[in-house]
Amino acid sequence: GRAARSVTAAGRPLAAANMDLPWPDEPHLALWHAATVLREHRGDGHLAALLAAGLDPCESLVSFAAIGAAPVENFAGRGWSAEEWAAARDRLAARGLVDDAGLATARGRELRDQVERMTDELAAGPWRELGEEGAMRLAKLIGPVLGPVFGSGLLPMTSTLGIATVKAPD
Asked: What are the boundaries of each domain within the chain?
């Protein structure tokens, strides 16, 4: 909660909207709310980093798929038509960010690395608020909750976030 309450909402509409909601009294709901505020804070920063890198929304997804972070098929639900996807890939190719096969060039990978570094930097404030000891304590406390969630097999093996989960052993 302390980390979530410390976020700066300026320029972060999704984090601000969630921060404006009433804070739940129940511990598990308070944890969920805090995680939501922190996730949206990071997400708002990620959008800013993508814009700073000169990537429009469709180009952002095409470049993410181009580095192999998630299969192109995972983005079907995002609403971009095949023509819009191809046009974004062509714009990225014209900038030297993807090759003829739609895979990221060295320059394209470098740009995506830059976006991720900036995203991390923009998301660091709440963790600085906790300090190293507080962040380590949070990780220790949340571990028993996250382990079963990731191990449940209910999360998709790949996502458009580039997060792969490991299937729980049988």
From this structure: 2-151
Which pLDDT tens digit goes with each residue over 127-153?
999 999 999 999 898 888 888 887 888
Reported as a single tens digit per residue, the pLDDT across 16-30 is 999 999 999 999 899
CA distances from 116 to 17, 50, 65, 154 (A): 24, 9, 14, 27
DSSP string, 40-99: HHHHHHHHHHHHHTT--HHHHHHHHHHTTSS-GGGGGGG---HHHHHHHHHHHHHTTSB-
Residue 124, Cα to own-chain centre: how many angstroms?
A: 14
Please indicate, yes or no, whether the overall pTM of this predicted structure exceeds 0.70. Answer: yes
